[in-house]
Design a protein that fits this description.
Order of helices and strands: EEHEEEEEEEEEEEEEEEEEEHEEEEEE
Strand order of the largest sheet: 3-5-7-10-11-12
Helix content: under 10%
């Protein structure tokens, strides 16, 4: 029975064959094995087109090397091929010059491609049909799913790509605590854009997106509020509640949901204004000591003028300090009476209230 060769070109000697030459052939086979598992070779590739690597039986061959350095100046996209039948791993270093792609594949199969600007290293294997990219490269591990605490050795450069964050996930601090959390909206077209600035210019947080006009909502949690330090506020719009009813009895003024309350129908009687946070929260709970709120109440009078004769805060009667020194004793006929109240919290559940009544007709 004659000797045969495996897919790496290593001679498999049959019993009784190669009498007197077993030592030489064994040494040759060991050299071929060494080349397959640790061999290094620099291969100069063609300027364009294809470069074919060989695997010759019982002979040192460039396709058998474990490490291949592809060098040379390329003037077009090129392909480097190894024989179809090979089953082995390769470390391939793309050291070519020229901004063109380099594909490493079997003659008849497929294989990974170095991008035109990728002059790195790939760990691949030939499975006898194709060359397969393992995902390991000189740039690091392409997929870090199994690494629960990956660390960078430098800045993360997205290289012109986006960073995608699942809904409900966040960017945290060095202790793993939440700093910025993201929530997904299906079919979103609008977003926030952060713009940095040169010296003497302010950075910007912009509302941008597909719509022509995009509002920006700052939404505190619960009873939290938005605080602007030493701010200049321009082009603001206050929340107004328009009630198509006549003012009478006790009217609850919910300061959480409105800054202006406007009753457009004719007043039906003198009325009490009760200032509160809302139906679930007191004004005392949402205001800090040393803070104030200025609120407007608009009531419509016809021939019989009615007016605000009682003021309450959280259900308790208070006596405002009225502009001019005296509380109004009536309303104004056939007019829109506007009451403006400034409520100052001076201590826990203790308030000073300033009030005025103005006729608009």
């Amino acid at each position: 029975m004659a000797s045969t060769f495996n897919d790496l070109g290593i001679e498999l000697m049959a019993t009784g064959e190669n009498a007197g030459t077993w030592g030489d052939k064994t040494n040759s086979n060991l050299n071929l094995i060494q080349q397959a598992i640790a061999g290094y070779q620099a291969v100069t590739v063609n300027g364009t087109g294809a470069t074919t690597l060989a695997m010759t039986d019982a002979t040192i061959s460039n396709a058998r090397n474990q490490i291949l350095k592809l060098s040379g100046t390329i003037t077009g996209n090129i392909t480097v091929t190894v024989p179809n039948s090979i089953e082995k791993s390769y470390i391939v270093f793309n050291a070519t010059t020229g901004a063109y792609t380099v594909q490493f594949k079997t003659v008849s199969g497929t294989g990974p491609t170095f991008a035109a600007t990728d002059k790195g290293t790939k760990l691949v294997y030939a499975d006898g049909t194709n060359v397969v990219d393992t995902g390991f490269s000189s740039a690091g591990i392409d997929a870090v799913v199994d690494d629960t605490s990956p660390q960078l050795g430098g800045n993360l450069d997205a290289n012109g790509n986006n960073i995608l964050i699942d809904s409900g996930n966040f960017i945290g601090d060095e202790n793993g605590l939440e700093q910025v959390k993201f929530t997904t909206t299906a079919s979103a077209v609008n977003e926030l854009t952060v713009v940095n600035a040169a010296t003497t210019n302010p950075p910007q947080l912009q509302a941008t997106g597909g719509d022509t006009n995009v509002d920006m909502n700052l939404v505190p949690k619960g009873l939290g509020r938005i605080t602007l330090g030493a701010a200049k506020i321009i082009q603001t719009a206050e929340k107004i509640t328009i009630a198509a009813t006549g003012t009478t009895g006790t009217v609850n003024y919910d300061v959480i949901t409105q800054a202006v309350l406007y009753h457009t129908a004719a007043s039906a009687g003198n009325f009490t204004v009760n200032f509160r946070g809302d139906g679930s929260n007191t004004l005392n709970a949402i205001m800090d000591i040393g803070e104030s709120l200025t609120l407007a109440f608009l009531t419509t009078n016809t021939g019989t003028p009615y007016y605000n004769n009682v003021v309450k805060i959280d259900g308790s009667t208070v006596t405002p300090e009225w502009q001019g020194g005296a509380a109004p004793s009536g309303g104004n006929a056939n007019s829109l009476d506007v009451y403006v109240y400034t409520v100052i919290k001076t201590a826990d559940a203790t308030f000073t209230s300033l009030a005025s009544q103005t006729q608009f007709a």
